[in-house]
From TrEMBL:
Name of the featured protein: Methyltransferase FkbM domain-containing protein
InterPro entries for the chain: FkbM_mtfrase, SAM-dependent_MTase, SAM-dependent_MTases_sf
NCBIfam families noted in UniProt: fkbM_fam
Organism: Botrimarina colliarenosi
Domain Methyltransferase FkbM: from-to ranges: 55-230
Length: 258
């Protein structure tokens, strides 16, 4: 029987899904990301009845599972392109007493290159690799790895859509809250989204972004300002977790703050 880690909020995951650095972090406060936890709780509690919550980069499902524990009425859509993490997510759904029908899970990356992209498999740090996944490039990379001159990081080719296509992918309608952690690609993905008509296939009313570095955080903040998103959380340097936090949207409730 596999060991289980239970967080203070009641979410349970299999311990072998976790990294040693995460276990160490949880010893201080037993939640996944200490700085983000309380803000996430406030946002979820403040959403309207039957709201649509989209998680991009769902990993093993911590935030979707927490949202479902808090709100049985939410429509929860989860994008996770790494097969291993999707499998872990499904295991954790059962572990927490839910059904897969309680979540819509998509094996799709969100990037600036809709179609197919190369995903670097780095566990929780997995991210879309720059460039297009051409057959010639994949063959060259394979040969380089064989002779010991290539990047040792495993890669796989996955389906990809733009952020502006998510509304259509989930069946249309507005998205009340979108949470995104895509390991450093947040700036170009947001830029591509804001460059297009946001109401074409479902407007995103609020966005929480995990930012990776001060320059990326500043660029994303500037985009929020330019496109009329009211900032509620602006933390480029968090004390207790690896990512910065940026959260804003249109007509945000006052309680959606840290």
């Amino acid at each position: 029987m596999s060991d289980v880690h239970e967080f203070d909020n009641g979410v349970r995951v299999y311990d072998h899904h976790l990294l040693d650095t995460q276990r160490e972090r949880y010893q201080k406060r037993n939640v996944h990301e200490e700085d983000e936890e309380d803000a996430f709780l406030a946002i979820i509690h403040g959403l309207p009845h039957n709201a649509c919550y989209v998680n991009v980069g769902a990993a093993i499902g911590y935030y979707p599972l927490l949202a479902r524990r808090l709100r049985s009425d939410l429509r929860i859509h989860c994008f996770e392109p790494l097969p291993r993490h999707r499998q872990f997510f499904r295991e954790n759904i059962a572990l927490n007493g839910f059904s897969e029908a309680d979540f819509a899970i998509y094996e799709t990356a969100v990037s600036t290159a809709p179609g197919r992209v190369v995903l670097r498999d780095e566990s929780y740090g997995s991210a879309v690799a720059p460039g297009s996944p051409t057959l010639g490039r994949r063959a060259k990379d394979f040969v380089k790895r064989l002779i010991g001159k290539g990047d040792a990081t495993p890669t796989l080719t996955v389906k990809s859509i733009g952020l502006d296509e998510i509304g259509q992918a989930i069946g249309g309608g507005d998205i009340d809250f979108l949470q995104m952690d895509i390991q450093g690609h947040e700036e170009p993905v947001l830029n591509a989204y804001f460059a297009k008509n946001r109401t074409a296939s479902g407007a995103i009313k609020s966005i929480m972004v995990g930012t990776h570095g001060a320059a990326i955080h500043d660029a994303c903040r500037d985009m929020f300002h330019r496109h009329g998103f009211q900032l509620r959380i602006d933390e480029p340097h968090t004390e207790n977790q690896p990512d910065g936090i940026l959260y804003g949207g249109v007509n945000q409730p006052a309680n959606a703050t840290t």
